[in-house]
Every structure is written in C-alpha cells, then in structure tokens.
Write a structure and sequence with these properties.
RNA Polymerase Alpha Subunit, Chain A, domain 2; 4-stranded antiparallel β-sheet; flat; alpha+beta; about 30% strand; 3 domains; Gyrase A, domain 2; DNA polymerase, domain 1; about 30% helix
C-alpha cells in the first residue's frame, strides 16, 4: 500500500553550476512526479520574454537619410551597417535606463564592437564587426539606446523619434537560450522523484543567475493577483475583501490597458505600475513623463477613457485613500 499524503513533497536541494560567465545550470530537486515540468516550463517562458536588456532603437547617421542610403568610403551600405549593429550588444553604465551616444570615426579603419565602448556604454560583444572605412572615409553617427524587454519592431518606434533618425528593430532580450531537462532522482527507496536542470545562456548583458532571479521576480509579481486578500465566499465565488469595483479597476496593472510598447515602456521606466497612478496625475504631470511623446500621451488618454477614467479625475475620498496605500506598498 502506498503511503497516503496530504501535501506533496517540497524540493529542498538547490544548486548553481557555473559553466562559463554567460552560461549556467540551475538545478533543483526532489519534485513529485509531474511537478518539475510544471515549474520549469513557465520559468523558461519568463526567462525568454521578461528578462531586461539593452538595445539601440534609433540611429542618426551623418550624410544618410534612410536605411537604403550609403556613406562615402564605407564598404558596407547603411542596411548592412544596421544588420551588423544588431549583432552588437550594449550595456548602459550606472543606473541609466536610456542614453544618446555619439560616435566619430575616420578611416582607414575596421570598426568593431570594442570601439563603441565609452563612459556611457559597455559593449559585451567586443569582436563583433560593424564597418570598414577606407582612407578617405569619415563616419559620424548617434545611437539612442534604451533598457527594455522582449522585441519592439521599428514600426512601433518610428513615430516617437526625431525625423532625422532611422528607427531600428529593438532586440532587448539578453537571454540567448533557456532549456530544461527533467531527470529522475532517488528519494529513500522511490526512484520516481524528479530533478530540474535549467540551462541558461545570456549574451553578457546580464549573468545567467541574475536572469533567473529576474524571471522569478516576474513570476511572483504575476501570481501576486492571487494574494492573501482573496477569500473564498462560497464554493463558486472568489472576490477581494474591501475592494469596490472602481478600486479593483484602478489597481489593475497598466498592462491591461493594451498600450504600445513605446508608451508602456515610458510609464514602466517611471515606475508607474497601476492604472490609478495615471488617473491621479494631472495632464501636465503625464506629459512630463520622460520620453513620453504626444502620440503616446494621446494613446494613454484614449485607453484610459475606455476604462471610464480621465487623467486627473476626482475620485471618492475612500477610494483615493485606498489607492494611495496600494501605490505606497508596491
């Protein structure tokens, strides 16, 4: 007869196997049968989609007006130059979340990633090739580099940058691969328990361990909606204690507004997490959010209106008080 349980065995062993600076195995065990994959699969998804990295999202090249142009004396045309640029991985120094970086080169020269490091940015792919200049060539360009997650296509950026810049597809994700395998492990006399081995490779912008830690934080934040404030009122009903319908809407994440990546990132970098935070702002406060353009402002106002709110709306005192407590506790 099998031993009767009332709770599954909780894993107790955790190991980090450092393979290189940019690769590590995260190992945890023992799990009950089927539990290992239930944990590993969402962690892998969060690693690939939610890890914070850096990428150039716009470039201004002296003498070039568009990506099909060319620069005299440079072997590569602008489209090839941009493709090479996408292979170069940057890391902003200090606490900066965005920077505008200027570069000037004169030929003859072969420009590589290491030539782009300065007091604003570190390049973690120093040997990546960018361009080849002959003895008559000069190359001057300015990059706009930002911190972000995932992938943002140039079409979503083009309306938010100055006219003399070329919008770039922004590949922020610093995790190159995240894979896992499930192995059997013996617990007492039972060989059917499981071990998770999660392999993480990054591009050098972030360490594998930091990427794993960030994915856990994102997972916990997503699960936070099911927190201790939830109580079961009946067999079929779950509702929040002391939350009015209005307060529930105001304390929803700005994710629920369905904003474009540009608008969302501007709010996120300003640590604006809840819809209610925007409602409490005056129109001028919202317009003064760093890097928030008119198009993004109009989009936020429109999305907010769909939820039944306006920027600077007057809220009932008890709702405003509860909302501010929520914001302070975030």
């Amino acid at each position: 007869m099998k031993k009767i349980k009332t709770t599954p065995l909780a894993p107790s062993e955790f190991e980090v196997e450092q393979i290189s600076d940019n690769e590590a195995n995260i190992i945890a065990y023992p799990f009950e049968t089927g539990y290992a994959v239930s944990l590993a699969h969402p962690l892998r998804r969060f690693l690939l989609s939610s890890s914070v990295g850096y990428a150039p999202y716009a470039i201004k090249i002296e003498g070039a007006k568009h990506e099909f142009d060319s620069v005299r004396g440079m072997l590569e045309d602008i489209s090839d130059f941009i493709l090479n640029l996408k292979e170069i991985r940057f890391k902003l120094l200090g606490d900066a979340s965005e920077a505008e970086v200027e570069y000037n080169f004169a030929g003859p020269a072969e420009i590589k990633g290491k030539d782009l490091s300065n007091d604003q940015v570190e390049v973690v792919t120093p040997d990546a090739h960018l361009a080849t200049l002959n003895e008559e060539a000069t190359l001057s360009f300015t990059l706009k580099i930002a911190q972000g997650i995932g992938y943002v296509p140039s079409e979503e950026i083009i309306d938010e940058i100055p006219e003399d810049y070329i919008a770039l597809d922004a590949y922020f994700t610093p995790v190159k691969s995240a894979t896992y395998k499930i192995e059997n492990v013996l617990v007492e006399d039972n060989p059917n328990f499981e071990k998770v081995v999660l392999n993480i490779k990054t591009d050098g912008q972030i360490t594998p361990v930091d990427a794993f830690r960030n994915s856990l934080e994102v997972m916990y934040a997503q699960l936070g909606v099911f927190n201790s404030e939830i109580s079961i009122k009946s067999a079929n009903t779950i509702e929040r204690i002391d939350e009015s319908p209005e307060l529930k809407k105001l304390t929803q994440s700005i994710d629920t507004l369905g904003l474009s990546a540009r608008s969302y990132n501007c709010l996120d970098r300003s640590d604006i997490k809840y819809i209610g935070e925007i409602v409490l702002m005056s129109p001028n406060d919202l317009k003064n959010v760093k890097n928030l353009g008119k198009k993004s402002y109009d989009e936020i106002v429109e999305k907010l209106s769909e939820y039944g709110f306006e920027v600077g709306s007057k809220l009932p005192a008890e709702v405003e008080s509860a909302l501010k407590k929520k914001i302070e506790a975030k």
